[in-house]
């Protein structure tokens, strides 16, 4: 299969990324915690440095951060994985997470705000409008909205499920110009890069989407680090004309490189962005 999309479409998508005024950045639990499930200050500060590099370029950033259940697990030292335990752990982890974000953004005199959402909030037009108005006000004030699912009240029926889908809905709903999903895997690969040394990074996904989907479907979510939901979220966003990139959270200056049009991670090209049809 082809490891890239049509060259014209890739270039057009990179230009959109360079021009992005509003960026949704999503960071996963692995990008924030260590092996004992404690919040990793170095990782968190690095993510904040990256977000601030976009703010310094006068771009709006909405930051979707996981890590509440993970950070709560490390703090409480409780590992039972019932839904009730995860919900309770999320409340411990979420406040700890926000405390650390407040400190970390504070290094740059930047203020943060916490927004917790459920599927109901996204589906209900009034609630969604209220959410959007709050975001617009915060952005106007130069405050960084940090968004997570409201795990304390999100039981099966009202769960969004994971923050890959949440960030995709948010990116579309707030008219963003770019979605970046940061993960411990550096993008979409031809096989699991953690197990296969010959795994190749897929640079861009466009008309080769069906091939990429087949490839991703073949690998189980557990061994592949949940890449399916990242691919599905990125694809949905790109179908709305918004470029999406899945990239490695530990890569130096990862966000700055993406908005400089560099070939980082895997880029999902909006189908209508193609210039060589
Ligand atoms: N809301 C969950 C948390 O903060 C994350 C869900 C996910 O893994 O994407 O722990």
Automatic annotation (TrEMBL):
Its main location: cytoplasm. Substrate binds at residues 66, 151, 163. Its EC number is 2.7.2.11. It catalyses: L-glutamate + ATP = L-glutamyl 5-phosphate + ADP. It is found in: Cytoplasm. One of its GO terms (molecular function) is glutamate 5-kinase activity. Keywords: Amino-acid biosynthesis, ATP-binding, Cytoplasm, Kinase, Nucleotide-binding, Proline biosynthesis, Transferase. ATP binds at residues 26, 183-184. GO terms for cellular component: cytosol. It is an enzyme of class 2 (transferase). Pathway: Amino-acid biosynthesis; L-proline biosynthesis; L-glutamate 5-semialdehyde from L-glutamate: step 1/2. Belongs to the glutamate 5-kinase family. Catalyzes the transfer of a phosphate group to glutamate to form L-glutamate 5-phosphate. This is Glutamate 5-kinase. It comes from Natrarchaeobius halalkaliphilus.
């Amino acid at each position: 299969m082809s490891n890239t999309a049509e060259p014209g479409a890739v270039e057009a998508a990179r230009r959109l990324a360079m021009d992005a005024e509003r960026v949704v950045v999503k960071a996963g639990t692995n990008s924030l915690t260590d092996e004992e499930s404690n919040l990793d200050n170095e990782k968190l500060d690095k993510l904040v440095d990256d977000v601030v590099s976009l703010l310094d370029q006068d771009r709006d950033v909405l930051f979707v951060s996981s890590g509440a259940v993970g950070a709560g697990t490390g703090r409480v030292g409780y590992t039972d994985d019932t839904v009730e335990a995860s919900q309770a752990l999320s409340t411990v982890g979420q406040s700890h997470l926000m405390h650390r974000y407040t400190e970390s953004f504070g290094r740059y005199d930047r203020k943060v705000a916490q927004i917790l959402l459920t599927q109901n909030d996204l589906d209900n037009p009034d609630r969604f409008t209220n959410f959007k108005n709050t975001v617009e006000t915060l952005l106007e004030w130069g405050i960084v909205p940090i968004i997570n699912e409201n795990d304390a009240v999100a039981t099966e029926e009202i769960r969004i499920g994971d923050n890959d889908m949440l960030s995709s809905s948010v990116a579309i709903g707030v008219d963003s110009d770019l979605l970046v999903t940061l993960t411990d895997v550096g993008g979409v690969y031809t096989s699991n890069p953690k197990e296969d040394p010959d795994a190749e990074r897929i640079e861009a996904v466009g008309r080769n989407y069906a091939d990429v989907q087949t490839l991703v479907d073949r690998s189980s979510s557990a061994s592949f680090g949940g890449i399916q939901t990242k691919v599905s979220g990125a694809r949905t966003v790109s179908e709305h004309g918004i470029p999406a990139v899945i990239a490695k959270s530990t890569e130096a200056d990862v966000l700055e490189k993406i908005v400089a049009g560099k070939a980082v991670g895997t880029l999902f090209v909006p189908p209508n962005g193609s210039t060589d049809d």
